[in-house]
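Figure-free illustration: sequence to structure, shown twice.
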Amino acid sequence: MRFSEILLSATVLTGLVWLVDTIFFRANRLMHVMPSNTSKSSAAEPWYVEYSKAFFPILLIVLILRSFLAEPFRIPSGSMHPTLWEGDFILVNKFDYGIRLPVIGTKIFSIGEPKRGDVIVFKQDDDLDSKDVIKRVIGLPGDHINYKDNIIYVNGTPLKQEFLEETNDFTLEKASWPVRKLSEKIDDKIHDIYIHVKDPLRIYQYNDTTVPKGSYFVMGDNRDNSKDSRYWGFVKDEDILGRAFAIWMSWDSLENDWSKKIRWHRLATIIH
């Protein structure tokens, strides 16, 4: 079960306990207060009512903030290297693309649509569970997409790339391999990508396809180490949770020195 579902369930449960107690039980409980008591507040409340009254306002505020303003996410994999790293904690704007109902995701008020180059978080269901995934928007509804020889073609036009440096990519298991770091421009947005120097995954050569209505074509910035629309298809608009816009914390689990666990240089940085 996703955290948003747990949060909604807890909010509804604590609110119902408080409401039912207030309507049906509280008055009867107060009638049985001993005459020696000087205040009605001395009537003992069951522990579950007391906890519900304490936690419901907090849960409700958190639910509203996460559902309609901004929600935190943790980057679990290296598919967005070098833009995002494992251990980055990011904030996702929940209202850029419209106001949606919690959990079910139904849009009740439209504000805007994803743009090429946006980094988005979306729901992805598999046979066992639902998980949150982060990728970059490459194709909009109606766009024709090709991916050949490490170059993306959008409506027949190749995205401009510029070589930056030779470097190494790595995993949390400390495996590493040489990559080329390039800058890539899509519309007015510039971001960095990784391309494997040796043995790129040829499965990711992608022939011409048209993005269907209400869907988006997305890719990871770590082009040869990302399962994305080249692998499992398009992202539906209804599954989009929001636009990633900032890193508020970054934790390096590979660093043995505890004083260096926090990547201070990545804190409070804007995601491009």
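We now fold a second protein in the same way, so the two outputs can be compared directly.
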Amino acid sequence: MMIVYNPAAGQRRAQRLWRVLDILANSGLRIELAETERPGHATELARRAAEAGVPLIVAAGGDGTIAEVANGLSGSACRLGIIPLGTANVLAHELGLPIAPRAVAAALAFGRTREVWPGRAEGAGGELLFVQMLGAGLDAQVVHHLPLALKKRIGRGAYVTQTLREIARYKFPPIRVVLDGVETEASSVIVTKGRLYAGAYTLAPGATPTERGFSVVLFDKPGAAAALMYGAALPLNMISRMPGVRVVRASEIDIISDHIPAQADGDCAGIGPLHITDAARPMNVVMN
């Protein structure tokens, strides 16, 4: 078992990781720990380990670290384990993964898996897998400009702070999107594999990452007032019922507008245009 760890997770989260490692080591399991040194390094570490025949590679970090490791495992039969140490831990909430160290260690030790279908996005900057969602528009603008020091200092509150900053200066350009051949337009777009967003908040009821296809959430109303209204509805789990919000199922999505910022699983994902489909094969994720 290799554990890919993001040391930027902070001291308190590092202590949670050490407790998991102690339990696994005391169970007699052989563990290799690899620390990431830069963005994209988790992908490189996971790819080399998969090529070397390591059967289980564990992402210890947030949704961005999980997505990087998933990109490294793409095309292999290697299993993906998760130690949730992130700010929002959206995928962990989505799959009902444990958070407590003893339960995390037990899940990794038993190694029962479930197939999850990642999404695949291709653009001018290349291609990447995402395990939960890809956003284009305001939420991606927030991710592109979020100071890492602020995120480390105040966690999830950093996204709220940066959102308020970006609302005042983002121009809300219309985003042209093609969903299974049908063109439409919105001010912001979130292409999601699962139900949840920004933690345990419901965005797309009925969506599941264990099936092919996507739920596409289209925010029709532009401007600061609409963005604030949508933001207030999120913690109430009412986004999908708000006026000006459409949730559409699609298997193939094209974001055809130029220069629209994109984010995937909370990390920068370049700019549009983007072509989005399911990954070529599902991924086996260790469950509890």
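Summary for the second example: The chain has two domains: 2-111, 120-279.
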